Protein: TAXI family TRAP transporter solute-binding subunit
Amino acid sequence: MKPIHPTLHRLLLTGTALLACTGQAVTFLNVATGSPTGTYSAMFKNIGQVCAQSAYLKERGSTGSLENIDLLLGNEVSLAFVQSDVLKAKQQIDQDPRVENIRALLPLHSEEVHLFARPVVVKKNMLGKVTRSGVGTFADLKGKRVAAWGGSLITAKVLSAKLKVPYSIVSVKDRDAAFNALNTNQADAVLAVVGQPASWVKTLAGVSLVPVPYTPALNGIYTQAKLLYANLGASSVPTVAVQSVLATRDFKTPDKKKMLLAYQKCALGKLVNLQEDEGMHPKWQEVTFKAWPWPQYK
Structure:
């Protein structure tokens, strides 16, 4: 017989004890993460390795930040990993009053904007005229099509407006659909917001990383960053990054509040373990859990 996982064993023991003592079923909270191979999912699992309180949290996969914030606002999950620009867009652009009830349980890492395109091709005809095709700079996106999904759709819109480079945004279901659109000439580039290093980016071939410039217009939303991916020949590609956060709502129910604060306290106290234990996601090394410009859950 296959041995039971330690976390599940601890959960079953604790849950059984609680049920025996109180006569009430154990409460589980759903957490919206993202792709199973994404940074959000990895970091959620990492916290679960060091905090027993994670045993009461159930991961719910999603397409990313945009779906996550909708799930949180729609009361389908109790916690959600989201990009800060998606939260700000909900507040400032959509003017959704429900966002005022959102709280930051754990301010997390920065997520880099990854802009992919086919390599630039330069041709010279018989008359000596040189033609250039493809996307080599952000400005080259003018009038072109950019595929994005999840929270990256919001980032694509914000960057287009702030950097004054008009392009069409092709909304797709997921990463595979985005690169399919690029490979079938239905899109000229793919924009993805993901914490570096992303495991799936390390498997890519036949595309280039396009620099994303930082200008004063992005101040307060994005910060400067660099992309480093040897498989794409990227020793240091300039880009911008946006902070992520594990968000919740301002719950007042005593049991739920106690559970969330215990989870928060454990994560705060185990930051060194998250940063130094082997196998933890590299992004933990830049996490400080310091407050950011959004109300903290207390």
